Description:
Oligomer: single chain
CATH topology of the largest domain: Serine Threonine Protein Phosphatase 5, Tetratricopeptide repeat
Number of helices: 15
Structural class: alpha+beta
Strand content: 5-15%
CATH architecture of the largest domain: Alpha Horseshoe
Amino acid sequence: MAAGIVNIRRDVDDKFYRYRMPLLLTKIEGKGNGIKTVIPNMSDVARALSRPPTYPTKFFGCELGAQTSFDEKNDRYIVNGAHDATKLRELLDGFIEKFVLCKSCKNPETDLIITKTDDIVRDCKACGERTGVDMRHKLTTFIVKNPPKNPRKSKKKGSTDTPASNGAHAEASTPPIDGLDAESDDELTKRIKAEAADLNEESELVKEDWSVDTSAEAVKARTKAAESAMASLSLGGGEEDSDEDADSPYGQLGRWAQENREAGPVEVYKKAEELGIAKKHKAVQVLAQSLFNEDIVAQIPANAALFKKMVTSEKHQKSLLGGIERLVGMAYPSLIPLVPKILMEFYQADILAEDIVQQWGTHVSKKFVDRETSKKVRKASEPFLKWLEEADDSDEDDE
């Protein structure tokens, strides 16, 4: 066997075994609290496994209780802390066993499929079997939110029986929420409200003084200022928008959501579907700007299930953060001190991932607001970012 190449199944001692991958390499960088493990050939390893390189990297973080970060453009995949190559290779074996090998024939020639109910299935090209993965593993949440790209995705409206291959969500022309039939409005409403209630009960905010003046005078002043700001605020957002956005599906959704905040998650989702933008990342940004007002912290749990349904990728998460930026930075600037609580609510509802928030918090951008406002919002987020960092350090100490 050539140097640096190993069998994907390292328990198979056969030099003619056809499924091989590069030997995982590691490089320790930094020192003290900034020490980290870089995996220079993660892309090559992941390509051999037919998986995105973010999956095994995130798997390492889940298993080690360490924070991970990805820079796909520069091909850098990092696990915080110092971890030797032998340990990570053993963990990679675990990833392969759980998320690559067919449970029936143990062949690695599989694709991941995400079903309408957000279950993950391994579709084996070798034996034809479809076997589920253990949905209790933390990585499954990341996979569902960041499905593998699927260039062969079918556009036929009637293809509801066969999920699209290579990890894309199986869709009908009118996808139901949580796998329920579109006609079951009563049951659907109960499910969404129940899920939102559960998320609300489980939420535990960090005990910091991330507060704002809630006196009657302050509330009245903020409301008046917000109303005038929202009147001139483009709900579309983003520097690519034009004056025609008011009549676009996004502008229509934004106005409707503002006027019907009490309609509930089901009706909001139906409206987005009706306008043909329920799956679009920009719809998430618009709803973040239009569904919430100065009571956003209290309003997030009631809408958590809706956002959990609609936020399905890294791009969706960034759009959600952009919508929050515009809401607190332009419409309700007095709520900027509440940014940590807002982020915490979305994070604990499993809508925002820590690596996305960390990346957002350290990169000022003028995509959604002006640069100065962007700086203010990110500066306000520092207590939450610090909490994330300390939580990761605590997990590492426990190891």
